[in-house]
Design goal:
By secondary structure, the protein is α/β, with parallel strands linked by helices. The protein has 13 helices and 13 strands. The protein folds into two domains: 184 residues, Glycogen Phosphorylase B (Rossmann fold), CATH 3.40.50; 175 residues, Rossmann fold (3-Layer(aba) Sandwich), CATH 3.40.50. The strands form two sheets. A seven-stranded parallel beta sheet has the order 3-2-1-4-5-6-7, with helices on both faces. A six-stranded parallel beta sheet has the order 10-9-8-11-12-13, with helices on both faces. The longest helix is centred in the N-terminal third of the chain and has 18 residues. The chain starts with 8 loop residues before the first strand and ends with a helix.
Length: 372
C-alpha cells in the first residue's frame, strides 16, 4: 500500500445512492475504503432522496440528474452532464459500476480523457439472450481500459465469447467487510435455525425456497427457517406469503423483512442457504462463509463455486433440483459434527475475500491503468 499516490483522483459512476442493490452496496464500500488513500468522487446518474448505505464524509458526491429512460436520451443527457461534471471535478480514472451506466458514460469519459474501468457485477452468460445488455457489455469491454469480473468464469467468458484480450480483463471478487470478517465467531451446534437472505423475487428463487422448506421442515419439527429481505415482490404470479400458507409453513418458514443489524444475526444460525436462479458473486454466501456457516446452494453458472468448496464447507447442488437440495440440507441438519467441521473449514478459507486482500487488487489495478 506504500505505493498508493494519495493525489490520485478516483471517480465512481453508479446509478443512485438510494439503490438498495448489491452493486451499489459494493461500490459504496469501495468508496469508503478508497477515500483513505485517494480523492474519491461518486458521480451519481440520478439524484437520491436517501442513502441506502452509509457513506464517509470525505467522499464527494456529484449528482448528474439524468432523467431520460430510453437509451438514446440517456446517451445525450449523460454526454453533456458527465462531461461537464468532469471539467468541474477532474478525475484520473473512472470506475463504472454496471454495464448500463458505464455504457452511456464511455463517450464523455473519452472526451475528458478519463480511462474507464468497467466493473461488471453480473454474469455474462446469464444475459446473453438480452441483445441490448449484451451489446452494452461488448461495448464496455471494448472501449474500457479494463473489465473487472466478479468470478474467474465470467473473466474467462469475456475472452471466450467477446474475444476480449486477456490483458484487458481480470477477476476481483467482492470483499467481506472487516466489520464482519474480524469479529469473533463461535459456531453453535445446538442451533436449529436455517438462514436465507436476499431480494424476495423470482430471480432469487423464492419458489425453490418454499418448495425445499416444504420437503424438510415437516420432518424436523425442532427446526425453523428465517428469511431476510426486502418486502415481498409478487412477480410472475408467485406470492411468497400465499405459498407459505398453502404449504402449511406458517411459523416454520418465517419472513423477517429487512433489518439493519444483519451482521449481528449470523451467529445464531446453523446453516446458510441460497436458492437463486442466477448470481454474480453472492454477498450472502461470502458473509456466511466469513461467519463460519455451512452453506448449501444451487451450483448456478457463476458465483457459488467460487465460494463453496463442495463437501468441505458446504454443498453445491445441481441447479434447480429441489429434491437434491433438500437431501443435502437434511444431511447437515441431522449431523452436528458435520456442520461443525464445515463451519471450521469455512472460516479457515474466508481470508481470500478479506477486505485487505481484495482492496490490494483494486489499488494494483488503478496503478496499472494509470501507467498506460
Amino acid at each position: 500500500m506504500d505505493s498508493v499516490d494519495k493525489r490520485t483522483r478516483v471517480g465512481i459512476l453508479l446509478s443512485s445512492l438510494a439503490d438498495m442493490g448489491g452493486a451499489v452496496r459494493v461500490a459504496v464500500s469501495i468508496a469508503n475504503r478508497m477515500q483513505r488513500d485517494y480523492a474519491v468522487t461518486i458521480f451519481e446518474v440520478t439524484d437520491h432522496d436517501r442513502l441506502a448505505f452509509p457513506l464517509e464524509r470525505a467522499v464527494q458526491v456529484v449528482p448528474l440528474r439524468v432523467q431520460a429512460e430510453r437509451i438514446r436520451g440517456r446517451l445525450g443527457e449523460m454526454n453533456k452532464a458527465l462531461f461537464s461534471a468532469l471539467q468541474a471535478h477532474p478525475t484520473d480514472v473512472m470506475l463504472g459500476i454496471g454495464c448500463d451506466d458505464t455504457f452511456v458514460a464511455l463517450r464523455p469519459c473519452r472526451r475528458a480523457h478519463v480511462p474507464v474501468i468497467f466493473c461488471d457485477h453480473g454474469a455474462l452468460v446469464n444475459q446473453l439472450d438480452d441483445r441490448t445488455t449484451t451489446f452494452a457489455r461488448r461495448a464496455c469491454a471494448r472501449f474500457s481500459a479494463k473489465t473487472v469480473a466478479l468470478t474467474h468464469q465470467t473473466a474467462d467468458d469475456y475472452q471466450r465469447i467477446f474475444h476480449t484480450p486477456a490483458a484487458k480483463v481480470c477477476c476481483i471478487p467482492n470483499w467481506v467487510p472487516d466489520e464482519l470478517m474480524k469479529r469473533p465467531h463461535t459456531y453453535d451446534t445446538a442451533s436449529r435455525k436455517i438462514l436465507w437472505a436476499g431480494r424476495l423475487d423470482r430471480e432469487k428463487g423464492v419458489d425453490h425456497l418454499v418448495d425445499i422448506a416444504a420437503r424438510v421442515l415437516p420432518n424436523h419439527p425442532a427446526w425453523t427457517w428465517d428469511v431476510y429481505g426486502e418486502a415481498v415482490l409478487k412477480t410472475n404470479d408467485f406470492d411468497v406469503d400465499q405459498a407459505i400458507h398453502e404449504r402449511g409453513l406458517e411459523g416454520r418458514l418465517v419472513l423477517r423483512g429487512r433489518v439493519d443489524d444483519m451482521y449481528d444475526r449470523y451467529d445464531g444460525y446453523a446453516i446458510g442457504t441460497l436458492t437463486s436462479y442466477r448470481e454474480g458473486l453472492p454477498l450472502f454466501l461470502l458473509e456466511g462463509k466469513a461467519c463460519g456457516l455451512p452453506l448449501v446452494s444451487f451450483d448456478v453458472d457463476t458465483g457459488p463455486r467460487d465460494i463453496i468448496e463442495d463437501g468441505k464447507d458446504g454443498f453445491l447442488i445441481k441447479p434447480y433440483d429441489c429434491a437434491a437440495f433438500a437431501a443435502a440440507l437434511e444431511k447437515l441438519m441431522d449431523d452436528d459434527a458435520l456442520r461443525a467441521n464445515m463451519a471450521a473449514h469455512a472460516r479457515a478459507t474466508a481470508d481470500a475475500f478479506s477486505e485487505d486482500e481484495v482492496y490490494a487488487s483494486w489499488c494494483a489495478l488503478i496503478a496499472e491503468v494509470l501507467k498506460r
